[in-house]
Amino acid sequence: MKPIDLTLMEEKTGFNFYNLVSKTERIVETIEELKTHNNLFINKENEEPQISKKMALFLLIIVTVIIGFSAKFYVSSIEEHATSVSVAMKDKMEFAICITVGSLIQIMLFVIPLLVILGWNIGQPISLNFEIFKTVYLLISVLLSNYLVQ
Questions:
Q1: Residue 91 zone, left/alpha/beta (φ > 0; ψ -120 to 50; rest)
Q2: What sections of the chain are H helices per DSSP?
Q3: Quick one: DSSP state of residue 102?
Q4: What is the model's pLDDT at position 62?
Q5: C-alpha distance from residue 16 to each of 6, 8, 134 (Å)
Q6: Which of 37, 14, 15, 18 is nearest to 26 (CA)?
Q7: Can you tell me the distance from the alpha carbon of 81 to that of 94, in angstroms, rounded to the nearest whole number?
Q8: How far is 41 from 35, CA to CA, in rounded Å?
Q9: Residues 87-108: what's their mean pLDDT?
Q10: What is the pTM of this model?
Q11: What is the pLDDT of residues 43-64, one digit of tens each?
Q12: What is the DSSP letter of 91?
């Protein structure tokens, strides 16, 4: 064996030994916690469930449907950004900027007002009163975007 191979083998062995020892220590700690805190894991006979099985199943179905729609939205958003990047790589910067600005406009015109209305309904109003620094930053970004699009 070459000296380099032996050194790499020693390092790999040392790393594996360290992982074995550290994981063994963590397993022992977990077993000790289970012994000392066993009252947290005992099922109490007289404890009533907070919701019924039918309600839990209904909520599970509703949450699954919501996650499905969210996943579809995120995939389409990722596809849009991937399209923008691939178009930019082909030196069609105007088209890439138009895709990006179009996405931003959709968010500004739909998502932000939706969040404001949702905030009103749940009793947590969202203020669109920005500080002066944020307002100037927004103005500069709008002017820069306008310059790039034209």
A1: left
A2: 3-36, 53-89, 93-106, 112-122, 132-149
A3: H
A4: 93
A5: 15, 12, 51
A6: 18
A7: 14
A8: 10
A9: 82
A10: 0.43
A11: 666 667 788 889 989 999 999 8
A12: T
CB 96 within 8 A of CB 149: no
Domain ranges of the chain: 3-40, 53-149
As a whole number of angstroms, the distance between CA 28 and CA 31 comes to: 5
Instruction: Provide φ and ψ at 6, rounded to 5°.
Output: -65, -40
The encoded tokens of residue 9 equal: 């083998």
pLDDT digits (tens, 9 = 90+) for 101-149: 887 788 788 888 888 888 888 888 887 787 898 889 888 988 887 887 7
Average model confidence (pLDDT) across the chain: 79
**Reduced to 3 DSSP states, what percent helix, strand and coil does the chain have, rounded to the nearest 5?**
80, 0, 20
